[in-house]
Each structure stands twice: as C-alpha cells, then as structure tokens.
C-alpha cells in the first residue's frame, strides 16, 4: 500500500544546538561515554570527543557535563483523550507531558468519544496534531467499529490515511472469529494489531487483582487468567493466520509465559509492560487509593518479578506507559466507582530508574533500549544517536531527586500512581524530530538538589 | 447515608459530605455500597466518621456487637472455634468478624459454596471448608444471609440446593453450639425455622447488643477521646 507518514506534529523550528560533555548512551550505536553532540538543522551533524566541538554561529550551547544523553523514548501506548474527553487531556497537553518525560513520539489509542474508527475522525485528529502536537503522534484507529467487536473498521482506507495500526484498547476483541478476520485483512492493509487482553467473563466487575488483598478488601477481583487465556488464544490465532500482534500492558506471570511460548513457536508477537506494573504490586491498593486503580490491575510480587525477568530475557520487548489521564473529580470517588488508569509519561523514566536501575535490578542500557524501541515494534523509525539521523534526544540528570506532587504536571490530569514518591532522574531537555520539544521548568512542589538515594 | 440521600440523586459523595459538614456535625454515620467510603470521607470533614458498612468491605459495629454478644454467652472467646457459613464473598459482616474474632483469640473457619468463598481469603488467617461435615467441631456457628440475587449471576445452582448443603437446621446444630446471624434471617434458606427459635440462637441478643454497642461507639467518638480533656490536677511537689 502507498502509505503516508503515520506521525504528525505541529511545525517547530529545527534545532541548532551543541550539547557538550554529556555522557552519551545509545547501546545500539555502541555509545557509552562523554561526547559532544552537534545538532544542525535538526539533524545530528557531529559526534565528537568531549570539549572538541565549537558552536557554529547561531548555535546554542548546552553544558551537559555530568548529564546523560539518550536517544529519546517512544511510547507505543498512550491515551490522549481527544476527541471528546479534552477535560482529561488533549493533543497539546498530552504531547507536552510526553516531551517532559523524554519522549520524542507517542502512539494514541482510539477509545475516544467518538471512537477513532473512521477516516474523517482520523483525518481531523491528524489535522489537530499538525496544529497542536509538541512531538510526533501516531494514531491507531479501532479494529472494530465503535470498538463494539462486531464489524471491522475500514482498515485499508484508514491505513491509506495514516493509521499506524489498529487496536480496540480499553477492550479486548472478545470474539475469536472477529480477531481472525482482522488478522486475515491485515494481509491486505498491514499494520500491527495491538491487543488489550482481558476475557470479560472472567474479569467481570473486578476492580483490582484477585488475590489476598481483594479478599481482604471485599473488592471484586480480576483474575490473572482473564488476561493470560486471551493472550494464549490470540497468539494461537495470529500463528494460524501468520499475522502480527502486539500484546499491550502485560501484567501477569501466566501472560509472560504465554508470550514466551508463542515466540518460541515462531509466532510474530511483541509485547509491552508498564512502569507501574514493573514497580508496584497490589499491596499499593490496600489503602484503596484510586490512583492505584488501572486495567490490567497491579498484581503480585511474583507477577512483577516475571515482568522484570521478561524484560531481561527479551520476552517483553518494550516499556509503554499506558498513560491514562482522568480528571480529579472522576478519581475522587470510592475505589470501586473510579475509572481505571494512571498517568505515566512524566514519571516513566524516573520511576523505572529509581526502582529498578538504582537497586541494580535492570541495567540503564536495558531500560533506555526498552523505552526507545516501542515505536519500532509498530514500524516507526527507531531513534538513534548517529550522524545524519534526525535529533531525537533526551538529556537527563540522573542525580536529581524530585518529589512527584499532587499538582504541577504538564499533563492536564494528576492521577499518577507515583504521586507522593521521591524519584531520582529528571528529564532536562527533549528534542523530537529535530526540534526542541521540552526544557525543564519547575515541575513539582520542590526539586530536591541533594543526590540521595530514595526508597 | 444510603436510601433517600442525595448520593442517589447524582450528587457526588464528596459534595454530600461537604454539605453535611457545613452543619458542623460532631459525627457522621455512613453506610454506602462502596468499599473504602468511610475512610475516604474522613479526609473531607472534621466530624468523626462511623463506618456503618462500606460495600462488601467491612461492618465494624456489627463485629463489635457480635463479639459483645459472644462474650456475654461464652465469657471468654479465646480459643473458641467459630464457623462463618454462607456467602463470604459478598459479606462485609464476614470480613469484619474474621478480623474481630481472631483479635479476641478465636479460631475462625469460613465455609460456603466454593463460588462464594473469595480466592485468597486464607491470607486473613482463617481456615476454609466447602462442606459442613466438620461443623460439629464448631463452638459457634455464624450463618450469613443468603441474598436471593446471588441466583442471577449463577453463583449457586439454586436456593434449594444451597439449603440442602449449607442450611443450619435441627439436624446440624448441636445443643452446645451457639448460633448467630446478622439478620434479617431468610427462614428456610440459610437457617431452618426451628434453629432460629432454639435456645442456641443468639440472634435476638445480637439485636439488643446492637443498641448498646452502637451507643458506646457514639459515646466514644462524641464524648471519649474527642471530648475536651479536664484540666490536669495541680501537682504538689
Ligand atoms: Zn488496555
Ligand atoms: Zn491503554
């Protein structure tokens, strides 16, 4: 098919920047040490020994000694709530939050109001992104009309209009037959199918992980098998049809095992895990804090460890935030009534860095790799720190400790599961597609200058 | 705060509590269908909050009155074997009583249809049984109310079968055992009529205890710790 660029953003001036003395880390390019990086016309023009490059006229110099420069992150799974729920987030605020988190591209989910399931809606979203988006945004329209699971969207036409892939995220494709048809149709139109795996007859009215804590709280549980059975089923269908699927937000050990088995069988499946599932468990739900309510739910320590092991052994391909903003009053209700979702773009790196890299659980290289690779699973270009590449860079102070507050987010919403935490690792600047998309400003109540370890 | 309250008219719980708080009450007694409501509300008002039941989570004053009733009957409940029988999954009474009885040193067993015993409940420290075979071991049988609507979602095949497997009746209740129930009873379902009327039944004593225990709770929050402290006696060296 003749495809147009699936990524859209508002026009922005091409960066002319010299970043001096930064510790550059791009594992794929074999970079791990201090360098000067010169960006001219939005393109990486030179990478040289530290202190050797002089800024050409009209070039800004950033003194980045002691700071880390990574290829910018790409999030294949965010909810920008546009159209229809702009009180939670819009393209401008959502992409601003993403840039503040070090992301140079994000992929927006279609569970909007109305559902993004037709070319007029997709076209109007792309037009809006061309006005409002601080960083490039890709759109994944729905697999089924209205996400009702009963008829396919016009996938070929949507692809021709820039659809990156398709997903009914927020809901599973309940009917195996419908998913099979979508996978058959994928042979015509391409585009990965991203799947939110949840058997509704098993998750039912559940609001948290089914286990010891749901039993204690008297809150209906969402059993792990509601996810893993559908993961296994859909891997089998994808294998039969030779199609490509991407499993969203894995949360359970059984799901990790199902994906590992499918990969071993040669099935074209990729998958993601979120920072909150990698760092939190259902213990956090004891207080019934609605910021800890998301779908899939936070599960057990065993599940969390399986996700970490999956990242290490390659079963889990990437880290994706599933950034899911909700207005304050929507979350200021009893736990069972609250909508599911946590924001995550602005805390993604810091939460994983603080809870997994600093204690030595994951290497910084692996985390950078898993935060950057998500878009490429959906056929987007991979951000690389290499001469001739567009500048997709994130500059991070890995010593800065900051408090995740009640307020002060770039996102329009504040329902962050890391609220109240002191995290280490602060994004100072993000370049996306050759332009400066973010520079740090006061984010939280206090930026704590002392580089002390946090719990 | 349930039937007839403004929450039912679409006003948020928060606005309802803020409106009530504007009258500067000393205490608010709250019953809602949602777990955690009482704790949530406590953050929005200076009034003392009494949880009168939050969803399927807890019903603390029921547990207090049940412990009070049992101590009246048995003296000490330390080491007593207490079986809680029925729909544990949907019962806030069961959850509060598991905690309260264990706190007083009792050994708690929950028993009911496997579909109505929550997965993971053993983490609360109780035993699990799916039949009444070992019921003679129990010193106290605490039967839960079987809601008719549990039939709708196929939690159990039929009330008839439930009664045949789990009903506490004259055949199953021993003379030395104490029978309790949070009320109101479905005669002929979880309890047979004969046991409700038997001397082992403490059900009416529970109702009576409800009044004194809840008076005590209100006294505690209104005149106990929250009351102004008397001026300290002058210390004479
Ligand atoms: Zn989802
Ligand atoms: Zn999502």
Question: What does this 3D model show about the protein?
Answer:
The complex is a heterodimer of chains A (455) and B (237). Chain A is an alpha/beta fold. Chain A has 13 helices and 20 strands. Chain A has two domains: 113 residues, Urease, subunit C, domain 1 (Roll); 306 residues, TIM Barrel, CATH 3.20.20. In chain A, the strands form four sheets. In chain A, strands 2, 3, 4, 5, 6, 17, 18, 19 and 20 form a nine-stranded mixed β-sheet that branches. A five-stranded parallel β-sheet of chain A has the order 10-11-14-15-16. A four-stranded mixed β-sheet of chain A has the order 1-9-8-7. In chain A, helix 4 crosses helix 7 and helix 7 packs parallel to helix 8. The longest helix of chain A is centred in the middle third of the chain and has 17 residues. Chain A is globular, with a radius of gyration of 21 Å. Chain B is an alpha/beta fold and 237 residues long. Chain B folds into two domains: 43 residues, no CATH class; 148 residues, Rossmann fold (3-Layer(aba) Sandwich), CATH 3.40.50. Chain B has seven helices and seven strands, in the order αβαβαβαβββαβαα. In chain B, the strands form two sheets. In chain B, strands 5-4-3-6-7 form a five-stranded parallel β-sheet, with helices on one face. A two-stranded parallel sheet of chain B has the order 1-2. In chain B, 40% of the residues are buried. The mean pLDDT of chain B is 91. At the A-B interface, helix 6 of A face helix 2 of B. The complex binds zinc ion (2 copies). The site of one zinc ion has 6 residues of chain A, from loops.
